[in-house]
Each structure stands twice: as C-alpha cells, then as structure tokens.
C-alpha cells in the first residue's frame, strides 16, 4: 500500500512541473503540447497509433519471429472436410499461428494483419498528406486572392464535392486494370478528399487577410508570397493538423470500403479492408476471423479520433474552455 | 443439356457465392475424420413421392441468363426451361444416377428414326399437343426455333444445329423472313419433321433434348425479348417475370399429363425469388422455418456454411450433393508467351496444388481431384489419371520442366477472375509461386469476366473456368473446348485456351464421323490423353453440387444431365397445406 501512495504524489508533482516552468512565458506550441499531455485519451490514442505504426514497419521482423509469412498456405491448419474451417478453438489459435488462420486457405492471420496494416496505414497517410497539400494550397489561394481566382477555385470545389465520388472511384478503379492499384487508390482518395479541407482553409484565410497585421504587412509592401508564408500559414497550422488527424480515420475506412467492393489492393496482398470483406461470410462459424481485423480497424480509427479531438482542444484554448 | 460452365460460374459467383467445385478423391495427408465425399442420403431422392398442389419456392441469387429456348445454354437454366416451360423432341428420364442418362420421347412419339447412315433423322409429333394459349404445336414451330439458333440477333444458345444441319453457309436465321429449305429441315406435314445433317450423327436422338429443339410459335416471336416470356409448351406457364427479382409460374392448363411421360408437375405454383444472397439462402434453409420448409436452393451451398450443414444431421439429411459432371480447369492462353511453349504448359500440370484449390471450393466433401479433362461420367465412371501427379503437385518436376523450357527463374503472368473467385485464384497463385511463377490476380465484376477472357487483345495468360458435357457424350466435351476452328477474336467461348492444333482437329473430325459409339468412346479417351500431353489447360477439380432443400420438399434429387441441379420435372411438396 505504501508504493501507490508514494507514486501518486510524485505523479502529481510531475504534472505540476510544466505549470511551474511556465512561470516564464511559454510559446503557444509548448502550451498546446502540455495541454495535450494532460489528456489521457489523447495519450492513449497516440500510444495506439505508435503501436500500429511500429507493428506495420516491423512486419517483416515480426513475421520472421512467428515463422509464417502472409501468403503461406497451411493446409494442415484448416479442416478441408468441413469447408476449410480452421482447426482448433478461437479460429485456430496455436503456437504456430498466434492469432489463428483464415478459413479455406489457412493463411496466418497475425502475419496478414501486420502486412495489412502497412497497406491500410500507407494509403491513409499518403492520401492525407496529398489532401492537405492540395487543399491548403488551393484554399489559401482562393481565400487570399479572392475575386476571380476565388470564384474559379470555389466552383471547382463545389463540382468535386457534388460529384458521386464513390461511384466514380469504383468505375475508375475497375477500368484501370494495368496500373499500380496502390498508387491509384491513393490518387483517387486524394482527388475527392481535398475540397473539404480547402473550404475550411479558404474560410479561415478570408478572415485572416483582413487582420491588422496582414494589412500592416501589405502596407509595408511585403510581397503576397511572403505574407502567405509568414503571416497567414502559421495561423492555419492548428486547423490543418486537426483536420489531418480527423481525415485519416475516414481514409482508412474508405480504403477498406473500396477493397471490400473489390476495387482496392490486388490479392494476395492483405489489407484490413480485404480481410474484413473476406471474413463477413464467416462471422458465424469463425467469429475470430471477423473480429481481429475489425478490432484493428476500430482501434486505429478510434485512436486518431481521440487524438484529433484532443489536438483541436489543445490548439484552440478558447474552444476547450467553453 | 450441356452448360457452359464459365457463364454459370460467373453468374453464381456474382453473389459472392463460391461454387462447390469438385476436387480430389485421393486426398492424402488430411488427418480429419471422414474422408469420403458427401452424397445425398438415402437412395438419392429426398422426401419420397410428392403430393399434388401447394407452392414451391426456389431461392436464387441471380436472374436466369436466357429462358429463350434458342439461347438457353447455361446449366441450371436449361433445367428450368426444359423441365418446366418447354418440351423438346426427346428428353432425359426423370431419375437420379445412371437411369437419368437415358432418353425418352417427349414431343416426339419415339426417339427418332435414322436413315441414310444416320445423316437423316425423322421425328413424328404426338397428337393433341398445345401451347399455353390452346393453339396446337406444329412441326414447323420446332423447325422455326431451330432456325432461330442460327440468328446472330439471338446469340449464346447451343450451336449443335448450326454444326450438324445441312444448312446453306451464311444462313442468318428466320427473323428477317428467310426460312431454311428442304435440304436442311423438311416438314412434310404438321406432325413430321425431318432433319438432314452434314455428316452422320449417331447420337442425334440425344442432341434433340437440347432446348433448341423446343417449339416456338412464329406468331409470338419477339426477338431478343422472347426470353422475358417464352410461350409455354410444358406443364407451367409464366404468370409474372420481373427479371432479377421474381418469377411466378402457374399451371399450363393446356398441357396434357397423358402425353408427357417425364414431367409430373406436382406443385400448383412455383415462385422463383432471385433477390437473395448465397449466405442468406443457406441460413434460411438451415433454419427451415415457416414457408422456407417449402423452399429449395437454386445455388450451391456457400463454403462458409458447409461446416454448419455437415455437423448437423437434421440439416445434412436435406442436402443434395451429386457429381455435377463438369471439369474445372486452369486455362492457359496458348497464343501468349510463355504459354505458347508446350513445355511451360506441361510444367503447370505439375506446379498447381489441386488439393489447396479444392479446399477453397468445399474441400474433399464436395470435390474430387480432376486428373484429366474428361469427367468420369464420360469415361464409364472410372476417373482416368493421366500423369499420376500427387494432388498437391510436384514443384521439383515443374521447376525441372521450366528450366528445360528456358525459364529457370520462372516468369510473370496475369489471372483474371470474378470478385467471388478470389480464394481460388489465390490458391493457384500460391502454388505457382513455388516454382517461381508470379501471378497477378485481377478481380473484376462477374459479368465482365467472359468479355475479358473472350477478347483476343485483353485475354490474360491464365483463367479459371470449366466445362460441362451437354449430354453424356465426349462429343459435347472435347470438340467444344479444343477445336481451334471455333476460336473467335471477340466473344470467344469454349476453346478459351485458343488451342489450335491441326493434329487434334483432324482427330476430332475422325472420331465425329465414327458410327460405332463404343469405338468412338475409346478414341475420345485416347485423344483426351494426347491433348493432356499438349496441355492447353490443367484439370483441377470435379465438383459436386451441394443444394439444400426445405423439410417439406419431396421428390428432390440431383439430375446427372443438368450438372447435378435438382430435377424440376418431379419435385413437389410432402404436404400441400
């Protein structure tokens, strides 16, 4: 009983440290970071994300340890007579297959989850990056320059947003047969994702450009490019970061949906979406096959949502206090 | 009575249903329990003799390809057409097993009279035959439908009439008013029809079981729309048919049971619900509640439900599972490098893992490993093992052959399959990877598979299709899939390997001209072995067709001619209340 008592005050003191340090004026970034650190949910989210990113990066190492690659068939692990159901309980969990095997082919679920994480996270991160780049660039341009530029870009955004994007994605992905599906998937998701962030950025820029310091800079003869880079963009950083973290869960879900519809990554490369699509037929006879990839997708989406929420609060002190 | 398996495969897979394709009888190495394939319990007929009346429900996940008798050439659809909606000159007996392979007179009074060395065939129609509207069926109506099978506007049907009849070259069918002359089909009176063939066809009595030889009244011709409402000459007529959703059949009061030795027509109404999913159908029939007790499945039991059925004796009793008589193959595009090299193709025979492939389509319970092209039903029931390769393949031998062929490090190729065929494709992919062959799998919508594979420019190196005999004769098997003269640039069917071998073609023609069926059978088997050595395709599995029926169903059995589909001629209910 003494140990917990001892640590509790210590932790309390540790938490108080940043507050005492901040007797000296802290930068807004340091403030935001310390606010973020105090949020348990945010830290949990971050930990989950780090865990999955590490797992994805270390997939070759981890599968080397477990001894089963993602594409290795194991006929002995499934009961072919009963429609290829995994042998053993809980979807065939065994010392050879740490998280069991897929029905029919007997591929190792642990290995496929790890390699699936690579694809799912790669697609989500790359598309998020592209979306942010395009969205910020066009949003800032439209908002800052206004007039005809704004009109053209805004109408273009309207067109892209009112487009039946899912149908178009399915059509495009099924027509383009000989291209790299991974790149195409990233491209298509980005193409239809950027207008949402661009709109927000445009609105923010519109109000920012009438602020006094921007007016002052302009009066001093500062070039537009310089104003954009040094005055406007830094004030948009919070919005952008929050937007990215909130967009990533949606992108992971979209990749899963497209793969589920059969237009995503080519087999046998695993992705979480593909695994879930394969497993829905088996939810009753082999629930573990369904639960594992779904749980991974759920955790990552939840983690990003938590982190994004917390980031928004941390970067927008006024908002968090209300 | 043949079906083009690939079309059926694609359609079935459309609803994420993996067909229970057959695989190997001799699966060594599997340590689990009962190793025998699952067959229908009892004497092969479920539920005894039905009573008259009641409503039978057929649960399906797909529309019928074509019900137009001139275009109906996919397997279970032929069963629907020929057993319920239209009658043909002769038809197969309503019985399971070998008995079902025998033919009986249907519209005709006998099995046909050959003359001129089987080059001329004469059939006489029975008295008092009528359509659903009461008008009489005439011999000219049968001639008219045979002519329709020549029409480019009505594609996709059995082409036996086109192959066999002594019709002028370039005949384009009757839709523009041009009829066939006496040199092809003679109709001396309303009840006699005489077919004149290009060459002797000893089995023509079997050929006229095909829907091509069903009557179509010229006055009711609607061209491509005829599929929506074929005029009934059989025991049922279409009350409503909303394609892809629902078809309701009611009794055709003008059908005379006394004239029909085969069809019993027990239920009063038959409802086909085409909006279900493969898993949903299986779940409903396993649960067996309410009206589902009067229901049967149109589509194969999905692999994910197999364990539920086999471990539950009450449900297993209601499972029909007989050999479909089809061969599922890995087809290689013999016009495309490296598959233009026979050594490479031969290596594939050793490289594939038929056991793993079979596991993805229901495992040993519903598959026998195919060891040659001709299914056992065409080789007197004895499967022939040409190469004696282990079911799991022989990668070392395959590698050795690849090295001899100049590909010591393997090569890359592509396989196009439907979205539902992914697991099968992955089993092939993993097996070929063992010998250094990298397969890129492209999954496309099931409806697009045939158009891609049938197109010379788009066809990938590999495809995974199958073929079923139209009637129990190798003449409906090898000539349909290995006759190089049938290859088309676009819309190619049948010979999808584009295998064009003069020696094979000469032999096909020689056997086709033989009048002794025993000798012909021996020659087919010999030719089968020769083609295996040239290896345009790898036979993978001989499938069973697992179909569930409700507990109130009687007279349900798999008919050997319609790829193991339930015979709709004599199915009914145990109790009509």
Automatic annotation (TrEMBL), chain A:
Its placement in the membrane is given as: Multi-pass membrane protein
Q: Which residues cross the membrane?
A: 41-65, 119-144, 156-176, 182-201, 240-263, 288-311
**Cell compartment(s), UniProt:** Cell membrane
Write out the entry's keywords from A to Z. Answer: Cell membrane, Membrane, Transmembrane, Transmembrane helix, Transport
Location, primary (coarse class): membrane
Pfam families (UniProt xref): BPD_transp_1 (PF00528), OppC_N (PF12911)
Q: Which CDD domains match?
A: TM_PBP2 (cd06261)
Every copy of the ABC transmembrane type-1 domain together lies at 117-308
Under InterPro entries, the record lists: BP-dependent_transpt_permease, MetI-like, MetI-like_sf, OppC_N
Tell me the segments the record calls region Disordered: 1-22
Sequence similarity: Belongs to the binding-protein-dependent transport system permease family.
The protein in question is named Peptide/nickel transport system permease protein
Give the species. Kitasatospora paracochleata
From TrEMBL, chain B:
From the UniProt annotation, give the residues forming the signal peptide: 1-23
Listed Gene3D superfamilies: Dipeptide-binding Protein, Domain 3, Periplasmic binding protein-like II
Q: Which Pfam families match?
A: SBP_bac_5 (PF00496)
Q: Output the CDD domains linked to this UniProt entry.
A: PBP2_clavulanate_OppA2
> PROSITE patterns annotated for this entry?
PROKAR_LIPOPROTEIN
Q: Where, by residue number, does the polypeptide cross the bilayer?
A: none
Return the SUPFAM superfamilies for the record. Answer: Periplasmic binding protein-like II
Keyword Signal among record annotations: yes
Q: Which InterPro entries match?
A: Peptide/Ni-bd, SBP_5, SBP_5_dom
Instruction: Cite the entry's keywords alphabetically.
Output: Signal
User: What are the residue boundaries of the Solute-binding protein family domain, all occurrences included?
Assistant: 102-484
Name by which UniProt lists this protein: Peptide/nickel transport system substrate-binding protein
């Amino acid at each position: 009983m003494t140990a917990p008592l001892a640590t509790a005050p210590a932790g309390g003191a540790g938490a108080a440290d940043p507050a005492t340090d901040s007797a000296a004026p802290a930068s807004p970034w340091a403030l935001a970071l310390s606010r973020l650190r105090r949020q348990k949910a945010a830290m949990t989210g971050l930990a989950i994300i780090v865990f999955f990113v590490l797992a994805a990066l270390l997939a070759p190492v981890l599968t080397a340890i477990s001894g089963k690659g993602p594409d290795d068939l194991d006929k002995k692990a499934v009961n072919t007579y009963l429609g290829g159901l995994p042998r053993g309980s809980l979807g065939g969990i065994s010392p050879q297959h740490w998280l069991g095997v897929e029905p029919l082919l007997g591929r190792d679920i642990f290995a496929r989850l790890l390699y699936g994480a690579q694809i799912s996270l790669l697609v989500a991160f790359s598309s998020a990056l592209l979306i942010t780049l395009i969205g910020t660039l066009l949003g800032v341009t439209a908002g800052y320059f206004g007039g005809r530029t704004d009109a053209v870009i805004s109408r273009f955004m309207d067109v892209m947003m009112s487009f039946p994007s899912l149908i178009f994605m399915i059509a495009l992905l099924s027509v383009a047969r000989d291209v790299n599906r991974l790149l195409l998937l990233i491209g298509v998701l980005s193409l239809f994702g950027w207008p949402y962030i661009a709109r927000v950025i445009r609105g923010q820029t519109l109000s920012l450009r009438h602020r006094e310091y921007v007016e002052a800079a302009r009066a001093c003869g500062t070039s537009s490019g310089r104003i954009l880079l040094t005055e406007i963009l830094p004030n948009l950083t919070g919005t952008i970061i929050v937007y990215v973290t909130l967009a990533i869960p949606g992108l992971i879900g979209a990749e899963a949906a497209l793969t589920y519809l059969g237009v995503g990554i080519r087999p046998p490369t695993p992705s979480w979406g593909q695994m879930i699509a394969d497993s829905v037929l088996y939810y009753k006879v082999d629930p573990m096959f369904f639960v594992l990839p779904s749980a991974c997708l759920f955790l990552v989406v939840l983690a990003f949502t938590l982190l994004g929420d917390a980031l928004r609060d941390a970067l927008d002190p006024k908002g968090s206090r209300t | 009575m043949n079906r083009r398996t690939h079309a059926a495969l694609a359609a079935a897979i459309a609803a994420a249903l993996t067909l229970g394709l057959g695989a190997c009888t001799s699966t060594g190495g599997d340590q689990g329990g009962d190793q025998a394939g699952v067959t229908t319990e009892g004497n092969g007929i479920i539920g005894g003799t039905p009573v008259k009346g009641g409503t039978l429900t057929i649960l399906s996940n797909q529309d019928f390809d074509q019900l137009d008798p001139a275009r109906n050439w996919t397997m279970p659809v032929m069963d629907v057409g020929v057993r319920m909606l239209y009658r043909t000159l002769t038809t197969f007996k309503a019985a399971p097993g070998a008995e079902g392979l025998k033919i009986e007179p249907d519209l005709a009074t006998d099995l046909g009279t050959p003359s001129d060395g089987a080059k001329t065939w004469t059939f006489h129609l029975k008295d008092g035959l009528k359509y659903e509207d009461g008008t009489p069926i005439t011999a000219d109506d049968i001639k008219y439908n045979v002519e329709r099978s020549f029409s480019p506007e009505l594609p996709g049907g059995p082409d036996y009439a086109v192959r066999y009849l002594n019709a002028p070259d370039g005949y384009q069918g009757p839709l523009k008013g041009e009829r066939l002359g006496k040199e092809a089909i003679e109709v001396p009176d309303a009840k006699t029809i005489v077919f004149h063939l290009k060459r002797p066809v000893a089995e023509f009595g079997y050929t006229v079981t095909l829907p091509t030889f069903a009557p179509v009244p010229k006055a009711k011709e609607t061209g491509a729309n005829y599929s929506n409402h074929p005029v009934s000459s059989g025991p049922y007529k279409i009350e409503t048919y909303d394609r892809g959703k629902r078809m309701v059949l009611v009794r055709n009061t003008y059908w005379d049971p006394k004239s029909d030795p085969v069809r019993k027509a027990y239920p009063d109404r038959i409802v086909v619900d085409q909006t279900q999913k493969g898993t949903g159908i299986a779940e409903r029939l396993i649960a067996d509640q309410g009206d589902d007790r009067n229901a049967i499945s149109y589509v194969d039991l999905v692999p994910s439900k197999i364990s539920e059925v086999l471990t539950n004796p009450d449900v297993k009793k209601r499972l029909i599972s007989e050999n479909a008589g089809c061969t599922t193959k890995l087809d290689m595009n013999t016009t495309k490098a490296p598959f233009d090299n026979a050594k490479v193709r031969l290596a594939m025979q050793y490289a594939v893992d038929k056991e793993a492939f079979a596991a993805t389509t229901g495992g040993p319970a519903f598959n026998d490993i195919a060891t040659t092209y001709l299914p056992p039903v065409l080789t007197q029931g004895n499967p022939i093992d040409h190469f004696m390769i282990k079911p799991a393949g022989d990668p070392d031998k395959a590698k050795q052959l690849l090295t001899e062929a100049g590909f010591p490090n393997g090569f890359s190729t592509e396989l196009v399959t439907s979205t539902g065929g992914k697991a099968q494709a992955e089993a092939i992919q993993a097996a070929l990877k063992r010998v250094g062959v990298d397969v890129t799998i492209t999954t496309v919508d099931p409806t697009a598979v045939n158009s891609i594979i049938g197109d010379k420019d788009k066809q990938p190196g590999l495809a995974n299709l199958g073929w079923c005999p139209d009637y129990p004769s190798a003449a409906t098997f090898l000539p349909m899939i290995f006759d190089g003269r049938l290859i088309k640039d676009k819309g190619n069917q049948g010979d999808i390997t584009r295998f064009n071998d003069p020696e094979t073609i000469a032999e096909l023609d020689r056997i086709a001209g033989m009048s002794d069926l025993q000798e012909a059978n021996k020659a087919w088997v010999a030719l089968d072995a020769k083609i295996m050595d040239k290896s345009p395709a790898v036979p993978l599995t001989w499938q069973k067709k697992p179909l569930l029926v409700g507990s109130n169903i009687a007279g349900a059995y798999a008919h050997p001619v319609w790829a193991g589909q339930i015979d709709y001629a004599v199915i009914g209910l145990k109790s009509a209340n």
